[in-house]
Design brief:
This protein is α+β, with helices and mostly antiparallel strands. It contains nine helices and five strands. α2 (32-40) packs across α3.
Length: 231
Amino acid sequence: METNNNMSMKEWAVCDRPSYKMKEHGTEAMTNAELLSIIIGNGTSKENALTIARKTLYSFGNNLNDLGKATIDELKEIDGIGDFTACRLMAAIELGKRRQLESAKVCSDVNSATAVYNIMHPQMMDLDHEEAHVLLLNQNFKLIKQVRLSQGGITETAVDIRIIMKNALLNNATVIVLVHNHPSNNVMPSKEDDKLTANVKKACDTMRIYFSDHVIITDGNYYSYRERGRI
């Protein structure tokens, strides 16, 4: 059926509606625009939800990863998306991130840079500023606790090594992993990153804590000091 942008989806033949397609054929059979239209819900007097969904995807290069980085204000710039719809979209995006994070934490063995990346990437991939975290582990590389150490600007964030050591001792951690992100998406460490790594290594050696790795996270890649033989 050829559908009109002005025609409400309630006026469409039942078999043409995204909700019908989902019930009959499953979510796997649906396009990104059709899935998005269900989240959007009602359209406007000018355009139906599917048309608005298509415009939304187009605004972000038809790239779901870029859409996932959108802010509420950016979504509201699209005709047909107001405060409530923008909030619904942001909620759906956040739920997707949290599911990804929980899936990564099901296996809490943090014995590789890849495992660190899988845990931290969902939390860091859309940040527009640097954050530093420490993962506190037991001797079997099981995750005890994750602690955010600091958050800063676009190019750097300050890390107090005393806070790292304090948290490790209070939580009986014998292994730690330092993690921070690069919003620039440049995965290579800076001179400041190298200096921080060396200082954390000295502190850990003094406290007889194993410094497993310092991992830099970008959207789609990571840098591991351990894998590069630099710890």
